[in-house]
Amino acid sequence: MKSSLSKINIGQLVRVASITQGDLQVKLTEMGLYHGKEVKVLFKAPFGDPIAVDVDGYVLSLRKSEADLVQIEA
Description:
By secondary structure, the protein is mainly beta. The chain is built from 2 helices and 6 strands, in the order E-E-H-E-E-E-H-E. It has one domain (2-73): SH3 type barrels (Roll), CATH 2.30.30. A 6-stranded antiparallel β-sheet has the order 1-6-2-3-4-5.
């Protein structure tokens, strides 16, 4: 089942399925979010923005609009 990274619960480990084509695709890929990469949601601020995720041991903070572009598989 595919969903966006912004909809994942805190503590859940997921795998990146794809990143929506657009201006931020290259930026997100350079930050370590690419097909097959496992990430874990660490924290969500009130109203879900921003979102902190663990990518290979470092914490990446994303706006909700950016996390919406990352399609994941649980």
